[in-house]
Structure formats: C-alpha cells, structure tokens
Amino acid sequence: MGSIRTSPTPMLDFEKTTVYHVENVDEPELGDSQFTLAFDEAVPTDFRPYYDKAHFETGSYLTERGRPEFTDRNLVDWELNDNRSLLIFHQLPEGWPCLPRIIQKEYQAYLLPTNAGKAQAATILADSNLYIESNIDRDVKLQIARSSVDAAYAEANTTTLSLTQWRHMIENYLLNLACEVQVRLDYKRALRQLKRNKFYLSPGSSIRISQEERAGVFQKVQATLYRRLGLNWDVDPID
Question: Pfam families per the record (predicted)?
Fold first, then answer.
C-alpha cells in the first residue's frame, strides 16, 4: 500500500456503530461456479460513479486504483479487506453470465442491489468475507451492518440508493468493522502493558486489573484510534 493519509474528509460523515464485544465467527460457504476470474479481472476499473465528483478534481489525491484519499486507512488488514469490498457489485457487469468464482481464495464476489431491502442488505454485508479471519461474531457484524444500512436508507429517504449512497454504506460498514477489529487488538496490547506496569511497581505480588480499569483502558484505546483516523466518533459508554 502507498502512503497512508488519515485526515478526515468533509464530504462524507461516517456513522459510528456501538457493538457488544464477543469472539466467535460463522464462515459463509463459498459456492462453485464455472465462470472464474482473477481479482484484477473482476474488480472495477472506474470508480467515478461511486463518489462525489469533487473527489476527482484536478490535484485531488487518489489511490493507485483511482479512488478518493479517505478510502486509504491505516488499520489492521485494511488493504485486503478494502479490496474485498470492491467485489461487492450493485448489478452484474456487462458480459457476466453470473457472479464469478474468484481464483484467489481470499476473495469472493457478491451481489448487493441498490434497491435491496434493508434486511437483505444487512445480511449480505454481515455474511460477506470482510474481516472473516478476525473472529468477529456474526451478531456483531449484523449489528454493525444494520446501523450502516439504516443510515444509508435514512439519507436516501427512498427504497433505492444512489451509487454514491450505496458505496458509502459498504464503506461505512467496512470502516466500523475494521475499527472493531483494531480496537480489540489494541485493547489486548494495552492490557498486557498495564499488567507489566503493575508487576514492575509491585514485583512478586498478584496482578489484578479491575473492571473499572478495563473499561477505562478500552475507552482510551477507542479514543486514541478515532483521533488517529480523524474520526469524530464518541467512545462507547461505560456500563
């Protein structure tokens, strides 16, 4: 991946989803198809229909695939999963008899129409292979997906999304899911560091981290990540 820019964009307002933190995953089964393509053959080559025209003005920063700057995020496994999200199509491209089977096993194509019902759209997103290796429970994925779908349809105020609204919905889901994965990783690291600090201060004693300390660490990790990414999101409240 090229250089990462994490400054916020004023042209999109990504919604934050608050989720419960659990640890299992349901993997979707991959179907067989006689129609196969490599990832680079399947992925779109022109992304201008999916974003505001202002992102493509002369002098605008674009990624190597010709997408706006804000799609380039410094998050764990972002490039792989952002690429995966590009294989979600609103309709079959011209000449395709069906969705292809992607040769590279880490990729899969999906069809998510712009006029899909909210329940259908949330299910397709939650059951996609975005961050499938990260052991996020399907219920958590579905909760994030529902929030992203609801926000998109509320903005559209109609049963059919525009291509920019449709793409924003997918990217909002991806960003929320990526932040969920990143926060969990950072939280575990922060707890390990807190234990080390306690041990150094009181060597030989039993190390205990209270629920209040854990909640504080979690909020600090969230706040640090959102600030680093330039996201104006609130941290989860402490129960």
Answer: STD1
Would 155 be classed as within a structural domain?
A: yes
**C-alpha to C-alpha distances, 76 to 23, 81, 131, 186, nearest whole angstrom:** 17, 9, 10, 10
β-bridge pairing 101-102 and 110-111: unpaired
Rounded to an integer, what distance in angstroms lies between the CA atom of residue 77 and that of residue 110? 20
> Per the domain annotation, does 192 fall within a domain?
no
DSSP letters, 132-152, are GGG---HHHHHHHHHHHHHHH
d(C-alpha 176, C-alpha 126), whole Å? 12
Chain-centre distance for alpha carbon 54? 23
Long-range contacts of 208-212, Cβ-Cβ distance < 8 Å, separation of 24 or more? 212/238
Which residues are registered as beta bridge partners of 68? 62
Q: Which residue has the higher pLDDT, 152 or 18?
A: 152
Instruction: Supply the range of the domain harboring residue 140.
Output: 36-182
112 in Cβ contact with 90 (< 8 Å): yes
Residue 8 — very low, low, confident or very high, per pLDDT cuts 50/70/90?
Answer: very low
Tens of pLDDT, residue by residue over 115-164, are 999 999 999 999 999 999 999 999 999 999 999 999 999 999 999 999 99
What is the number of structural domains in the chain? 1
Helix axes 163-201, 118-126, angle to 10 degrees: 50
Kindly state the tokens that stand for 43.
């992925």
**How far is it, in rounded angstroms, from Cα 131 to Cα 173?**
11
Cα diameter, the chain:
69
